[in-house]
Design brief:
Layout lengths: L2 H50 L22 H22 L6 H29 L4 E4 L3 E4 L3 E3 L2 E3 L17 E8 L1 H4 L9 H12 L4 E6 L7 H12 L6 E5 L21 H7 L3 H25 L11 H17 L3 E6 L13 H15 L2 E4 H7 L15 H17 L5
Parallel strand pairs: 5-6, 5-7, 7-8, 8-9
Antiparallel strand pairs: 1-2, 3-4
Helix pairs in contact: 1-2, 2-3, 5-12, 6-9, 9-10
């Protein structure tokens, strides 16, 4: 190679280096502009969502239990808008940033995008829920629970998640505690605070026994079954050391074709699901799948006809197991149990439930365990003015709650339970 060839080749290489340098400079500028564009898009999306979560979206109601009420109605619109914004965010990121990175940096960038995606969804679903509070929220092993420390529809919910006044978990000397577990009738659905049978009973007993501190702690929840009552007692309520347990359920024999126990995660995965249930995004996805499942089950039950005990929310065999467990635990502590056959009006709605068979089971349990049994259903059913004690097709009104108190109070006084 002569000198002339060397000079020409050097100029060619020099021009090539300059072109590559210019290209790299353009690529670098485009990359940083891409980061700025994505950042501005995120800021604008954030500001827009702050306004959107304050809107009142059309309300939709899911057929099913209380766990389908959370996240609240309208959260689907928020989730869809978040999803659209985040899909656009992902497209922008890949077009302007990710495809210009090498393998390792590309992996890190994709992980960061996923984190931002779900954090955005989680944050704004949470903001919407704060502005549109619900009475209940899903729970990994109770299926649902009251949202604590709030006033919802004029019902005061304590920090313990009970529709009852605040109190110390540890009993005071001379204090006698009744604990009520049950469903919506025992909870006092549609009844103002202080007008439920548990509140009236507490006042009457306190007046009769002024030397003692009497508490009738109402831990019933709307829609609850004996499975949920037993689970709640074992994990939360036992620590309140009740002297007497009052049990009143109507929902155990609901012909739903699915057991309550199967609505909860396996026990060996409970820790994992306790974490997942803290995520609003997870609960939103779970709600949508549960709605589809409930619709499928309702159609299946219509084809199936009236199911036997094995298809109840709590099968007959399990009802006996749960009642006996509760009774044994309370009696080991030196206490006792009152089992209530909760009242129901005679109507077409209640004819779908195996009411009499369920009451045979709990009467048998009371007899075998030497527990007190009060048959409100049988007594009220025989009366001519039965319907006057209810405000709808299932729940006792204020007059009905006063009548419930009379019988429970008489049993407690006659048996000298508060000693």
């Amino acid at each position: 190679m002569n000198d002339l060839e060397r000079i020409i080749l050097g100029k060619i290489n020099s021009n090539k280096d300059k072109n590559e340098s210019k290209s790299d400079g353009k690529q670098g500028a485009f990359f940083y502009w891409g980061i700025i564009i994505v950042f501005v898009y995120l800021v604008v999306s954030f500001i827009a969502m702050q306004r959107i979560v304050r809107l009142d979206f059309p309300k939709t109601y899911a057929r099913g239990h209380q766990h389908l009420m959370y996240p609240p109605s309208g959260s689907g619109y928020v989730a869809i808008i978040c999803l659209v914004l985040m899909v656009l965010f992902v497209i922008l990121c890949h077009f302007l940033i990710v495809r210009r990175l090498f393998k390792c940096k590309r992996i890190v960038a994709n992980i960061l995008i996923i984190i931002i995606f779900f954090s955005f969804m989680e944050y704004f679903l949470g903001e919407y829920i704060k502005l549109h509070p619900t009475k209940y929220r899903p729970h990994s092993y109770l299926i649902w629970e009251l949202v604590p420390n709030q006033v919802y529809d004029r019902q005061k919910i304590s920090k313990k998640g009970l529709r009852y006044e605040e109190f110390e978990a540890e009993k005071m000397p001379g204090e006698f505690r009744f604990l009520v577990i049950g469903d919506s009738s025992a909870f006092g659905c549609g009844i103002p605070d202080e007008k439920r049978f548990s509140d009236i009973l507490q006042d009457k007993l306190q007046e009769r026994y002024p030397g003692k501190k009497i508490r009738v702690i109402n831990a019933a929840l709307e829609g609850y079954s004996i499975y949920q009552g037993r689970t709640s007692y074992d994990l939360r309520l036992k620590k309140y050391s009740p002297d007497y347990l009052i049990i009143g359920f109507n929902n155990d024999s609901s012909p739903e074709g699915i057991k309550d126990e199967s609505r909860t995660p396996p026990k060996n995965l409970r820790t994992l699901f306790n974490l997942l249930y803290k995520s609003n995004t997870f609960l939103f996805i779970k709600k949508q799948t549960a709605i589809v499942k409930e619709k499928y089950l309702s159609k299946s039950l219509e084809k199936m006809g009236f199911p036997d005990e094995t298809k109840w929310r709590v099968p007959g065999k399990d009802i006996r197991t749960h009642y006996n467990h509760l009774i044994d635990d309370v009696k080991k502590r030196g206490g006792g149990v009152i089992i209530l056959s909760m009242p129901l009006p005679e109507n077409e709605y209640n004819s779908q439930f195996p009411v009499l068979r369920y009451r045979e089971i709990i009467r048998e349990i009371a007899k075998n365990t030497d527990s007190i049994f009060i048959d409100f259903y049988g007594e009220w059913r025989a009366g001519p003015d039965n319907d006057s004690f209810f405000f709808d097709n299932m729940h006792p009104n204020i007059k009905g709650h006063k009548r419930i108190v009379e019988e429970i109070y008489r049993e407690i006084v006659e048996r000298d339970i508060v000693k």
